[in-house]
Design goal:
Elements (H helix, E strand, L loop, with lengths): L4 E7 L5 E7 L7 H6 L11 H5 L7 H6 L6 H33 L8 H7 L2 H16 L14 H4 L3 H5 L5 H4 L3 H13 L21 H9 L5 H13 L10 H9 L10 H14 L19 H13 L8 H17 L6 H14 L13 H25 L42 H21 L9 H16 L16 H23 L11 H23 L11 H14 L8 H4 L1 H21 L6 H17 L4 H29 L40 H4 L3 H13 L1
Antiparallel strand pairs: 1-2
Helix pairs in contact: 4-6, 10-26, 10-27, 11-14, 12-14, 14-15, 14-16, 15-16, 16-17, 16-18, 17-18, 18-19, 19-21, 20-21, 21-22, 22-23, 22-25, 23-25, 23-26, 25-26, 25-27, 26-27
């Protein structure tokens, strides 16, 4: 038997004998037995046993798979038939490839199939296959036979590119990416202009002690006058949307921030730097003042310093100010277009921290003061709105789909309370505008928007979304839009809330509802199926409303605040898509209003020009994509040819590009010596009393459920418990 052993007697070193086991050599198995026992066997050559047994007649494996024996004549005929069938199949494949190549590459028509295949690499063949699918769809009003590029997702099939709501348009509008790429290759690259985003330079922020933290952060502060201007701009405008801080508390601390001898908490410095990172990139001229454009290169360093400071903080003593800095730093990244691929992950991490600290549960009146309860509600409202916004933009689920939150909505009140307030003021009516109106009304429509996002992005948690559901949700969302107060009257208006702030709040409330309508109708924008014509009309109307509102914000001089969202580009590409889906001779309302649509896009295009011009870390794709979409509509309307549209688009971008370079060179030269002269001397920390809301020695969020020393604060008597258990063990 294979694997058996036999014994032999051999002498050992001591003069005696010992018994040694000799392993017999394993017999070679047949091919079939090798496969049954899962042993290695070379099926190309027979094993020795099969050879000795007269292989292949006696091979157990080959006997099962070998066809019955035939004569030599029959075998020759069968082999000839198989060869002829293979030749015909190869000829058919070559003919199909030649047809694809002749469409995508007319210059190769005179070559034979083998030469063409050798000339064009495999990447180009995959592009030709994609173009063949584009020809079959026949959704382009322009001759796309000359396109030489496939969809970007075919080349980089990463999750961000395949899921993001904006990048999906490169597949849904097949002319868009070839237009941009041809423009770059023919007009931009010959002039040495490459469409690459400047990488933000991160400062080397490392601190191992509180004194080092204070010194390093203080070294990044601009002069006091500029800081006052940028902080004031943030408080007056951005804080009207996402209520992150309590303005009176912050102003009271900021009033002593520049006093000699006053200790500067690193948390306060980080809070100020995060505000500067949001305001410095706007460069929007207002009636009362204008933000300095000197610090265009600084937000990346400020954001990096705040991120590093947050990473060094312990989760045990996490305070409310830590969440405030985290929210402001994230908003600064959106304003400066920094690490945009990580936005969804970043808000998800903030949500996890907030859930760990219990911010998703209604605060207890017996533990938290009225001030802390309201601030917790506001921070949770900010986090869930930012995470839900990313869910719609990235096409990914949010943790809110699985979180049972019972926290109340923030009250519709201004900051008419403080840390010593015994109770909160009465919430104002919905028609009364306050600085918290955005959070108040967002919380009212949150259940509906959350339900829609769950149906779209978490199909495993809810039934599939049918078209009847789409119509029902459209009606509900439209009703919510119509019920939004416009705050046009003087009711609730005062000096701190001018009319344009009320318009800004109304615009953001409208945007987040319109974003849901576009998301649920997007899968039904199919020209060949007349059943879903309503989706095209709804998308067209909603997109026009978004463009008109952005034009209104631009007229008020606050269009830069809308960069916290991507509604402008989303509406531009949506209205371009539904217009291109219409035949050129169509009598539909969408086709009849195509000229007004083009004019509206031309009015909104300067908004993205301003963003690219003043944002040092901005990328050209937003402006170039919207400009390309506008030119495609002009081609579809017959007012421009393909080559003329490319030339106009390139000329406009080149002019913007050179202006941006000149402006940033001036800003860099002005800001070159600012950082060196801003080092502040260390303060005497005993000169002033400490501010409790900035002191990181204890947490004001809640009890650390993982800390073993919590009995010291709550008096739970764990020490006595240990003594009791110890005495019991001794007994």
């Amino acid at each position: 038997m294979a694997g058996a052993t036999e014994k032999s007697i051999v002498p050992n070193s001591t003069g005696g004998t010992s018994e040694r086991r000799n392993r017999r050599k394993r017999l070679q198995l047949s091919c079939g037995e090798c496969r049954q026992k899962k042993l290695s066997c070379d099926r190309k050559l027979p094993c020795q046993r099969c050879v000795r047994s007269g292989w292949p007649e006696q091979c157990s494996f080959e006997a099962k798979t070998r066809p019955p024996p035939v004569s030599n004549d029959q075998s020759t005929q069968q082999q000839a038939r198989r060869n002829s069938e293979e030749i015909r199949d190869l000829q058919a494949e070559v003919a199909q490839l030649k047809g694809l190549l002749s469409k995508a590459y007319p210059q190769y028509e005179v070559q034979n199939g083998a030469d063409a295949l050798r000339t064009i690499d495999r990447a180009e063949l995959s592009q030709a296959v994609f173009l063949d699918e584009t020809f079959k769809d026949d959704q382009s009003p322009v001759d796309v036979s000359k396109f030489e590029l496939s969809d970007p997702r075919e080349r980089s099939p990463h999750g961000y590119y395949s899921q993001h709501a904006l990048l999906q348009f490169f597949r849904e509008i097949p002319q868009l990416f070839p237009f941009i790429k041809e423009n770059a290759d023919e007009c931009l690259k010959p002039r040495g202009v490459y469409l690459k985003k400047e990488k933000p330079v991160r400062n080397e922020y490392k601190a191992n002690s509180p004194l080092q933290e204070q010194s390093t952060l203080e070294g990044l502060l601009p002069p006091k006058d500029d800081v006052d201007l940028l902080v004031s701009y943030y408080l007056n405008y951005f804080e009207q949307l996402h209520r992150v801080i309590h303005v009176p508390t912050f102003k009271r601390e900021y009033a002593t921030f520049w006093l000699p001898g006053r200790p500067r908490y690193p948390a306060m410095i980080a809070l100020v730097l995060s505000m500067l990172s949001i305001s410095a990139c706007t460069s929007v001229s207002l009636n009362e003042t204008s933000t300095p454009s000197t610090y265009g290169t600084m937000p990346a360093q400020w954001i990096s310093a705040c991120d590093e400071w947050l990473r060094q903080q312990s989760s045990k003593n996490r305070k409310l100010v830590h969440y405030q800095i985290s929210c402001l730093t994230y908003l600064a990244k959106r304003m400066n277009m920094i690490r945009k691929k990580s936005w969804w992950k970043e808000t998800g991490a903030l949500m996890q921290n907030a859930i760990t600290d219990g911010l998703h549960r209604d605060p207890s009146p017996t533990i938290d003061s009225p001030y802390m309860r309201e601030m917790k509600r506001r921070i949770w409202a900010v986090l869930r709105e930012l995470d839900l916004q990313n869910a719609f933009e990235f096409g990914l689920p949010t943790l809110l789909h699985n979180v049972d939150s019972n926290i109340s909505a923030p009250s519709n009140i201004d900051d008419e309370f403080n840390e010593r307030s015994k109770e909160l003021p009465t919430s104002k009516p919905p028609t009364h505008y306050t600085s918290a109106s955005y959070q108040f009304h967002s919380a009212r429509t949150l259940p509906l928007r959350l339900e829609i996002s769950q149906r779209l992005f978490s199909p495993g948690l809810s039934p599939a979304l049918t078209y009847e559901d789409v119509l029902r949700y459209t009606h509900a969302l439209t009703q919510e839009i119509h019920s939004l107060p416009r705050w046009n009257s003087d009711e609730g208006a005062n000096d701190t809330n001018p009319p344009r702030l009320r318009t800004l709040t109304y615009a953001f409330l409208q945007f987040q509802l319109q974003q849901c309508i576009l998301a649920i109708h997007r899968p039904y924008l199919q020209r060949d199926d007349s059943k879903y014509w309503l989706s095209e009309n709804v998308t067209h109307q909603i997109s026009r409303d978004i463009l008109l509102m952005n034009s209104t914000l631009a007229g008020l001089g606050i269009q830069a605040l809308a960069f916290l969202r991507e509604d402008l580009l989303l509406a531009s590409l949506s209205i371009t898509r539904v217009t291109l889906l219409q035949p050129q001779n169509s009598t539909s309302t969408i086709t009849a209003s195509s000229l007004s649509t083009i004019n509206l896009l031309d009015q909104c295009l300067p908004i993205l020009e301003t963003r690219y011009l003043h944002n040092f870390h901005g990328e050209p794709w937003c402006f170039l994509t919207m400009c390309a979409a506008t030119m495609l509509l002009k081609i579809h309307a017959g007012s421009e040819t393909w080559q003329t549209a490319k030339s106009l688009c390139a000329e406009r971008f080149l002019d913007l590009h050179y202006r941006r370079i000149a402006q940033h060179q001036d800003s860099a030269s002005q800001a070159g010596g600012l950082a060196a002269g801003q080092q502040q001397s260390m303060r005497d920390e005993t000169s002033f009393p400490a501010s409790e809301w900035l002191d990181s020695n204890y947490s004001d969020i809640g009890v650390d459920c993982f800390g073993l020393d919590m009995d010291m604060d709550l008096g739970l008597g764990f020490d006595n418990t240990w003594e009791t258990w110890g005495s019991a063990l001794q007994d």
